[in-house]
Design goal:
mainly alpha; 176 residues
């Protein structure tokens, strides 16, 4: 996973620091992101983000996405097993996961979707939604030969019926 482009070192770190100060600890429920990123790189969060290396950005993104996943798991623990396939109930946690992964990828200048984000989405489907089936059957188009017969039959009948109507109307005038 590689960053899209390289940003000057000061702008990104000041932007993330300002964003975390303004939005507080509730930002995507990431209270420990700065501590985990500083532990992963061995530096403070501003230095870890500002050194500009792809490896430190990738470590930051990996740590942040793990927190996104942890928050999703926390939200899904509140959902009853019988409600796992009800979109009205699971849409909020699922959207939170997607928004968190996408938002942080954008903030860290990573492309989205990326391999790590897709891994978390697939993992959520595998763990929570693997038994969900469609309640209403999905209707598919008929096979091509049946479809062609259903289209061509009325087209071929129209000239025959027009001819029949004209022929019968001429016979009716002659008899009257």
């Amino acid at each position: 996973m590689a960053p899209r482009t390289h940003i000057s070192s000061g702008r990104l770190s000041r932007g993330l620091l300002l964003l975390s100060v303004l939005l507080g600890p509730g930002l995507c429920h990431m209270e420990n992101v700065t501590t985990s990123s500083s532990q992963a790189t061995g530096t403070n969060p501003a230095t870890a983000t500002s050194n500009g290396t792809a490896q430190s950005m990738e470590r930051n993104y990996i740590a942040i996405t793990q927190h996104c996943w942890d928050y999703f798991v926390h939200l899904m623990k509140k959902v009853l097993p019988s409600e796992l396939c009800e979109w009205k109930i699971i849409s909020r946690p699922y959207s939170e996961l997607q928004n968190c992964l996408e938002g942080w990828a954008e903030r860290l200048n990573y492309s989205y979707p990326n391999a790590l984000a897709e891994q978390y989405i697939f993992q959520s489907h595998h763990i929570y939604f693997h038994n969900c089936t469609l309640e209403h059957p999905v209707y598919f188009d008929p096979p091509e030969d049946v479809l062609l017969a259903m289209i061509i039959a009325p087209i071929c009948l129209i000239p025959f019926l027009v001819t029949l109507v004209i022929w019968r109307s001429k016979d009716g005038k002659a008899q009257a």
